[in-house]
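Input for the complex:
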Amino acid sequence: MKTLFSAIILSSLFLSVVACKEPTIDEGILPLVSAATVDADGGAWRTIVLKSATDINVPQPAATTSDTYQRELTGIKNGLLSINPEQNTAVTYWADGGVRRWNQIARQLVAKYNLLPNYLTPTSGTLSSTDPANPMASPTFAARVYALLSVAQYDALVVAWRAKYQYNRPSLETQGVISRVPVLNVPSYPSEDAAIAEASYQLLAYVFPNETAWLKTKAAEHKQSRLWAGACVPSDVKAGEDLAATVAATVIDRAKNDRFSAAHDPNNTWQTGLAKSTYDVRWTSLENPVLAPMLPLGGRVRTWYDSTAVLQAKPSLPPATTSAEFQKALGEVRDMANTRTREQWRIASYWDDGIATYGLSGHWNFLAEGLIRDARQNELRSARTYALLNRAMQDGATASWSAIYTYFVPRPSQMDASIKTATTIPNYPTYVSDHATIASAASTVLAYIFPDQATQLNAQGIEAGISRLYSGVNYRFDIEAGANWGNRIGQLAVDGAKTDGAK
Amino acid sequence: MKTSLTFLIVAALLTPFAAKAQMPHDAIYMGKKQLCVAGMYGYSSWNQYWENSFKRENFNIGTLTTQSVMVMPAYGISKRVNVILSLPYVWTSASAGNLMGQRGVQDISAWLKVKALVVGGFSLHGIVGASIPIGSYVPDFMPMSIGMQCRTATARLLANYKHTPTGLYVTAHGSYGWRSNIKIDRDAYQADDRVYNVNQVRMPNVYDAAVRLGVLRKGWQTEVFAERSACLDGDNIRRNDMPFPTNNMQSTLVGWYGKFQPRHIGVNARVGYVVDGMNVGQSTSYTVGVLYQINFNK
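Predicted:
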C-alpha cells in the first residue's frame, strides 16, 4: 500500500515539474523587410523646422577612388568577417528600422517617466513646481516628445537624402560588399542611420536629460551597427551624424521657444482662469489630497499647424449642468458605470494609456509602427509618417488643453460621486476629451497615409474616444466635441501632407 | 456524481460520526468515502501597502476591502488520499476615490493530498494543486482586480508530528508554485524597467513556507501559524505607480485558526495579519466557515 502511495505522489510531483517549464514572453521576431521605395526625390520634400534641406551644407565626400575611401572600404570588408554575436545582435536589432527603433525607445522613456514625481506629491511642498531633469510624461508632454523626435528625424533625413543624390556615392553593395542585413539601395553618403541616431539621441536627451548617457550608448551602438552590417563606411556615418547634430540643434531651439516650459503654470494663473469660467459648476480636483491640475498652460504651447486654424475650431461651452441635456449626459455615464459590460471594460482598458504607459499618443505610434512595417516604408517615409501623425496629435493635445482650461467643466464623478470608473480619472477638467481629440487627429492622418486601412483606422479612432465614456471619465459631449476638433486638426495635417513633395 | 450527491447528503444528515474538516495545508484526512463541504466567508482589508519596500497610505483608495464566499469540498478517496476543491466568488471595494470595485467568480482549484509516510507520530505528505480562472475578470486593474487570470500548479511537501495522547501537533510545509503567463487587454505594458510591446505578461513563480503549532482533539482544533509567501522574481512597484501582476509580491503573515465540529456539522474561523511585505497591502483577514460532513459508506 505504501509503495502505491509513494508512486502516486512521485508521479504527481513529476508531472507538476514537467508542467513547470518557466514561461517567457515572446514579443515575436519579425523578419527584416526591404523597403518598397527609395524615394530618390526625397531631398526635395518639404522640411518642417528647417526652411529647406539646402539650409544645411553637407560637405562633398572623398571620391570612391581615393585612398582614404578605399582604406575605409577594406576596413568594412575585413570587419564583416570578425563580427561577434553581440555585434550581430545589434546589427539585426537596428536593421529592423532606425526610425521605428528610436520611436520604441521614446515610448519606453515616456512610460518610465509617466508617473507622478515625488516633487509633485502634496507632501513635498508646492504643487506646480517642476524639475526639468525629472519631468512627468503627462499626455501633453508625451505628445510633444513624439512630435519633436519625429520632426528632427524627418528633417535630418530630408537633408541626408538630398546629399545622397547630390553626391551619389555608390552603395557598398555595388562595390562588392555583401551586407549582413538588407540595406536600402540608395547612395551611402551620408548614412541615414547615423542621421537618425544622432537626431534621436539629441532630441530625447533634451527632453529626458537624466537619460543622456544611456541614450548616447544607444546612438553609438546604432551607428556602429551599420559599419558591422556592411551598410556604410565611417565617413558616411560621420557626415550623417554632423548634419543631424545641426538639424537637432534647430529643432531643440524651436522646442525651447514653444512655451512648453511654462505649461506647468509656475505662477498659478489657472486659478484666475477658473474664476473667469462662465460654466455654472466649476471643476475641482478629485485627488485626495487635492492636486493642482495638469499643465494648466498646456493650451498655449506653439502649434505645428496654423494656430488660428487649429484654435478657431474650439467648440463652445457645453450645456449647463442644470439643463436636461446635461442631466441626460450625466445619466448616461452613471448608467454606464452601473452596467458596464466586460467588452466595454476591455475597450476602456485598451485605450486607457494612463499612468506608467507610453500614453495615448504613444499607443498611436505603436499602431503606426505596424502599418509602416506592413507598407515597407523606408526610413525617410517612416519618419514622414510619424512626423505627420505626431504633429497632428500634439496639436490635438494642445487644442484640447486650451478648451479644458477655458471652460473648467467638472468630471462626471464630481457631479455624482456614485459614478465609479474603470480607469483612473485624469486630474484636469473634462471638456473637451483630449483622448477623443488626439485619437481622431491620429486616425485622420493615418487613414490618409494608409488608405487601405482607413475603415479600420477610423473605427479605432472612434473607439478610442468612446472608451472614455465606457470608463466613466468623460461625458459623450466631451468626446463628440473632441472628435470633431481632432478631425479638423487631422485634416490640416493631411492638407500639408498633400503638398509636401512626397508622392 | 452530482445526482447521487443530493441523495447522499440527505442520507448523511442522519449519521453522526467523528468530524474532520481539512485543508490543503494540514495533515488531516477525510476517511474513505467521506465528504466534507465547507462554506466560507472571508473579509480582508488594508489601508496601508508596501510600494516596493516603502510603506504608504493612499487616500485615493482609502481602505481596500476584499470579500469572498467560497465552497470547498474535501473528499476521501481513501484515508490516505484526499481530494480538495475550492471555488470562490470575490468582490472588492475601495472606501475612497472613484475606482470601480470588481466582483465575480474567480479561479477554481483542486488539490490532491497524499499521506506518503507514517513513522510513529511523524508523517510526511505530498500535495499537488492546480487552479484555472473561471471568471472573465480584469487582471491588471490593480488593486481592484479580484485575481490575476493565471493558471497555477503547486507542489507542496508537508511534514507533521502529532503527539497523540495530548493532540499537540506541529506542521511545516514548503511549496513551489508555477504560474502561467496571462493576457491583458492592452497592446503594451511597462514592467522590469522596460516596455513590452505585447499583450502577454509573464507572471513570476511563487513559493511559500509555513509552520503551524496547535492542538487537534476529537471535535475541536486550535492552532497558531506563520506563513511566508513570495515570488521568486518580479519587479517592484515604482514610486507613485500602480501595482501590476509582474510585481514581486511578498508577505509574512501570522494568524490563528480554530475549528469546532462535534458532529457532522461544525464551524471554523481564521484570523490573519500581514506583519511584513513588499508590493502588497498590509491586510488583516478574517474567515468564518460552516462545515458539513457526509459519510458515503452508509
